[in-house]
Amino acid sequence: MISTGQTQTYRADDPVLDMDRLIAMANQIGDFFAPYSPARRAEGIRNHLRTYWEPRMREALLKYIDEEGGTRLHDHVISGARALTERGVDRKGYYGPPQA
Amino acid sequence: MANPVKPDHSVVTTCAYCGVGCSFKAETYQGRIVRMIPWKEGKANHGHSCVKGRFAYDYYNHPDRLRTPLIRKSITDPWQEVSWDEAIHYAASEFRRVQDKYGKKSIGAVSSSRCTNEEIFLVQKFVRAVMGNNNIDNCARICHSPTQFGMSATVGWGAASQHFDSILQADVIMVVGANPTEGHPVFGSLMKRRVRQGAKLIVIDPRRTETVDSAHCKASVHLALRPGTNVAVLNSISHVIVREKLYNEPFIRERCEWDEFESWMALIGSDRYAPEVIGPQAGIDPESIMQVARLYAGGPNSAIYYGLGVTEHSQGSTGVMCLGNLALACGMLGREGVGVNPLRGQGNVQGGSCLGSWPHVFSGYRFVTDSDVRSSFENDWGVSLDDEPGLRLPNMFDAALTGHFRGMYIMGEDPVQSDPNQHHVISAMKNMECVVLQDLFLNETSKYAHVILPGSSSLEKDGTFTSAERRVNRVRKVVEPLAGYQDWQIVVKLMNAMGYAAHYNDAGEILDEIARLSPAYKGMSFSLLERVGSAQWPCDENAPEGTEVLHRVKFPRANGRGTFMLTEYVPTLERTNDRYPLLLTTGRILSQYNVGTQTRRTANSRWHPEDVLDINAEDARARGIDDGDWLKISSRFGSTRLRAKLSTHVNPGIVYTTFHHAKSRANVLTSDLSDWATNCPEYKVTAVEVVKIAPETESETAGFQKTATLEETAA
Amino acid sequence: MWAELRDLRDEMDLGTPPRNGARVTVTVDGVPVEVPSGSSVMLAAAKAGKSVPKLCATDTLEPFGSCRVCLVEIEGRRGFPASCTTLVEEGMAVITQSDKLQSLRKGVLELYLSDFPEEDIEGGWSEFHKTLQQCGVSDHPYGKGENHQYAFIDESNPYFLFDPAKCIVCSRCVRACEEIQGTFALTISARGFESSVSAGQNQPFFESNCVSCGACVQTCPTQALVEKSLFEGGYYRG
User: Fold this and answer.
1) ipTM here
2) Rounded CA gap, B680 and B655, in Å?
3) Structural domains of chain C ordered from first start
4) Is residue C161 scored above 70 in pLDDT?
5) What's this model's pTM, rounded to 2 decimal places?
6) B53 vs C: CB within 8 A
7) Which of B4, B169, B192 sits opposite C230 (nearest CB)?
């Protein structure tokens, strides 16, 4: 069952989403957290990416930061994304699971 | 025949159209449905209804109804009719083949807001327990996902805080980005009743809708703001409340986080949000911003009702947070007559949200990353589950284009017509190898499908819907499913075919499973609903017959307090320029429902046979356009054709259309921009240009449209 | 009126909307019953199990008092007040059945029947037919006078039609469009014998600002407004 239309050369290690889109999405998240203090900013971005982004999306972003310096990302987005790789207790999201 | 036939049998069920969830008695005569009469004891509608639920039910036995399963190897092949077993087996083996070739996460599903809670729950179970990933999403992604996010952040739960009747206790009603008279008509009538009794109405909407001005019901203030400036205007309203100290300090100290309030005050109080600054930016009079602030804060009971005009923006979640902040600051939560109420559009989109039809949460809004929650599901379902969030619907299409996502199970949805940036969606669909569509009719998406499973309408199945006021209503079978199976039975077949032994004697057993696994639905069961008719969640040992008003004592957040989010205004990237100087915004009309799959196959099309473009007379004159002329509308993403309608309801610089007809292809125009938090598309702001074109013949129109749309049999 | 909406019941039409006030006790045909103050005598009678025959009243609409069928007698008062527009008072004693009341109701109903399609009097199941049965009226003594039996049937709306030949101008449709739907599309135009239900600016329903919610159809007691789907093979006047 081969689909017609474009013939896609698929490589498993290609980023799962187009990089322009990922970068735009990450910067948008950064824009929301901009008014917060630096510590809360980084934590907020880190938690948002951890809770809502598919792991391959996070990997692609981190790969972009490691390999290309993340030049098109805002600074605080870079520190928030880097916080994803911190070892330690998997903290619950900033918005946390609602408790009834 | 002078006297009408007398119905011999009736079943109380729930309308499948909008989120009001009107209760009807479906009356039959000799096995045929002859009438839908609103049920007086329906707690949402009290015996009232609108044209859709009341009369537009004929689609259920329209000639276009799919009755046999269809399969094909490639989308260029013709369809083959096959038996149910063959189709199910084919779909199951194809899904496994795709997973073997591209990885476990290369398939996913999207569930329907017109299917029952039981069905939605089964689809997310199918994805999680059988497909083995979290790639499950629902159409709330493209409408109210920001509500989920923004409301959870501020007050703890992303659902309406009140029941509909609560509006009869409101003194000030603020409607933001919604048009209840058209989108939630029965609720709109209730609102009008209250306004006739003396309540004040504030409307924040770029258009002069029927809600703003109709017989004996006029808005005291109408902020006709420029599309895209929601957050700026809402911040400005809050600015006045802070500046003039109109906030409810005792409430904030007792029920909210004071520190967060102070940070919020500092941000909102800054000069850039003063009405004198924001007014000109948004195209409204600063004085009216102040009026709104004073009216709302003055109450004594002020209620907010909002819709897609808030959520479908790149700052959709932020906009919802602004509303939450506003209500908390003025103490308008936790009793009758107040609240923050998203007007959920579809019959069961609230159900979809509650039951975990999301890539990042299980039922009850509990995160998949939370190992305690995950184990409770693993124990009940007997399999281990993926602990990482999955792909959202727009990201599924993105991933299809990079070749990582290849298979999809689509139940009762038409993404090709309803999702934005149509060319992008079509390219993504073409890249997939296994698209299984379960629906009542062939639609735009079926052109790219490989398996079609005929679904059942809400008149043909048993289950429950959760309406916009959190009310769980019973859906009861009136006639037998035309194609042989209720939708939930088809999902069970798929699960079994893919190796997971699932069995339910009836839909009530699925609701029992939901009750086990979802705290807010703990007390729900078919027998409870038989006894009390309907119940609003949360329904548990503290509230055995449901909860009408939320947040009376505590907010469902970790510390029981509401909080204030910092909502800085970030203008959208979608800007008008010389090439695209107008802003297009979209909406709904009373007689048609969403993409019109059902209503276009009824006589409702007589009211709205085509989508038209509302354009202001000034803009029309500048372009030599007259009423009824054919126009070409283009955006950065594509172009389409619509007829012009000169209108005083839109200001200069703004054009408006509806999205009910496939041939209008409104979503060719809409952008790829979306909400920062949820990827809810920014349908409400698209820069366009409009030019008059010569009237053309039908064949020219068909040729222009690269993908010919389906011809529907006339109703 | 909000919690009171919950008191509506499908199988029983109380006649006027439920209210929420201090309890008041009255007797209806000797049966004591307790109802909130602000309730109508008609509602009290319904609650006591002694429903008064009615046409223009229903519990989803404010009372109007036009049909003159729901007349009752109240001890200590003169005349025959309409029970829908009369409010209860503590200790009131209501009589719903008497020879005089019966003859008054019969007179009113016979007048309605004199301008109603002859062949549809038997075999119907509308509220009007039920009220006729409740009062034991099945024909009228009048000859053929001026009537509306040849009035134009409005079938413009795809789902329902309006046949003025069955209309008793009770205004329930007008009130439903105002109070329940809030569109104010209907009115009674002209006066006296000429009065008739009219949509928009005297337009066919489909051309007017009617939004086709069906509230008028649902509330019409004579099925002058009626769903087309209830007629197999089309509508023919009897």
Assistant:
1) 0.93
2) 21
3) 160-230 (3.30.70.20)
4) yes
5) 0.93
6) no
7) B4
